[in-house]
From TrEMBL:
Xref: SUPFAM superfamilies: ARM repeat (SSF48371)
Family assignment from sequence similarity: Belongs to the IFRD family.
Name this protein carries in UniProt: Interferon-related developmental regulator N-terminal domain-containing protein
Region ranges (Disordered): 1-25
InterPro entries: ARM-type_fold (IPR016024), IFRD (IPR039777), Interferon-rel_develop_reg_N (IPR007701)
């Protein structure tokens, strides 16, 4: 075949890349990663993993994500988190929201990692501060949608547990007033009462624990009169359920400790005295193996002085509970027991011990270290 000289081969135009549609996160400006010459080796390692979150290889991204979660779970890094929380939050929310699409481009493992990392952001930022509240505001809508998406799926229990953990920590550390806390409690409560019969024991236990964890952060006088009228009867119906009995015990004990029992009763039960309601609980406990519940309820007795007081000024009767948790901390209040167990269950024994040594986190849950910080820290170190 004769070649024609001077003839140029036509080049096909390359297709132009499609413009990606805008998302609700486009308003978040991705900041530069904060590199600080005075960083500790641990912070430098975290910064390195942060820089790899957008690596082209998916396996590298997942490894970096996992390393960040593992490092922040084992010990706090307030400086690193406060300098890079927007970058981390953007990445996590993008993964969580992508996971709720019809054709998600992220794995369930990545969604779980993102949920855990958002929880760790809340714990590491100043509780109730501007940064923590920003994380709260940006995250709650996404988590609420994610819970609605995954709550009825029996194969996504790990994701649902991660969402419940995250809601608990965001409400506890990121909210600035009781109404915000109760808005998160309502998200959890609505999902629990709607799906509880289908959920595994683990998810139900986590939902009740997260709800109680949030309730423990409020004084009884700030609890709404309209949201929680069915709580007492619902928990009484679960006291014989071995799968959630421990969490129910904690929740009922907290309600008695707070006082204002009328805020948690059905209108038909409001005439029932506190003594009669306590007798109902006592009767149920007599038929159960309390020893198998870790001997949590050591004394059921009428005692004055621990509750916030009724609206008519009368001091409520309370259930006295004494418990020594594994970390060696002697906790006399139900709210302290609930808070320490929830945080310890999330961080693990080693991580919880390390976080206890930083007073910032402890000032939030009932001033746990106040007055006895050295004794408690020594006890934690011995146990770990």
């Amino acid at each position: 075949m004769e070649m024609r000289t001077g003839q140029k081969r036509e080049k096909k135009d390359k297709p132009k890349p499609k413009k990606q549609p805008q998302t609700q996160y486009d308003h978040i400006v991705m900041p530069c990663i904060h590199h600080n010459s005075s960083q500790t080796p641990s912070e430098s390692n975290l910064t390195h993993h942060l820089s790899l979150l957008h690596h082209p290889k998916r396996s590298v991204r997942l490894d970096s994500h996992s390393s960040l979660s593992s490092s922040l779970s084992s010990s706090p890094s307030y400086g690193f988190v406060s300098g890079n929380y927007v970058t981390l939050l953007f990445h996590c929310l993008h993964s969580i929201n992508n996971g709720t699409q019809k054709r998600p481009k992220v794995s369930k493992f990545e969604i779980c990692l993102s949920l855990r990392l958002v929880s760790l952001l809340a714990i590491n930022l100043d509780a109730g501060g501007d940064h923590a509240h920003q994380v709260f505001d940006e995250s709650i809508p996404s988590l609420s949608r994610a819970l609605l998406h995954f709550e009825s799926s029996l194969s996504d229990s790990d994701i649902v547990v991660g969402i419940l953990d995250c809601l608990g920590f965001l409400g506890f550390f990121g909210s600035t007033h009781p109404e915000e806390i109760q808005s998160v409690m309502l998200i959890i409560w609505d999902s629990l009462t709607k799906n509880g019969s289908k959920w595994s024991d683990l998810i139900r236990f986590k939902a009740i624990s997260a709800w109680s964890f949030l309730l423990s952060s409020m004084p009884g006088s700030h609890v709404s009169n309209k949201y929680w009228k069915s709580v007492t009867s619902y928990f009484l119906s679960l006291m014989c359920d071995d799968g959630v009995a421990l969490a129910v015990d904690d929740a009922l004990g907290l309600i008695f400790e707070m006082g204002f029992l009328n805020k948690f009763e059905e209108p038909a039960e409001e005439g029932c005295s506190r003594d009669k309601l306590k007798d109902k609980i006592t009767d149920k406990l007599r038929g159960l193996a309390i020893e198998d519940r870790g001997k949590k309820l050591k004394v059921l007795a009428d005692e004055d002085g621990n509750g916030d007081g009724d609206e008519d000024g009368q001091i409520p009767r309370t259930i006295k509970i004494a418990q020594q948790v594994k970390d060696g901390l002697i906790l006399s209040k139900v709210c302290e027991i609930i808070q320490s167990k929830f945080i310890r269950g999330f961080l693990g024994p080693h991580g919880f011990a390390n976080y206890l040594q930083i007073t910032a986190i402890c000032k939030t849950f009932s001033n746990l270290l106040e007055g006895e910080a050295k004794r408690m820290i020594k006890a934690v170190r011995r146990c770990c």
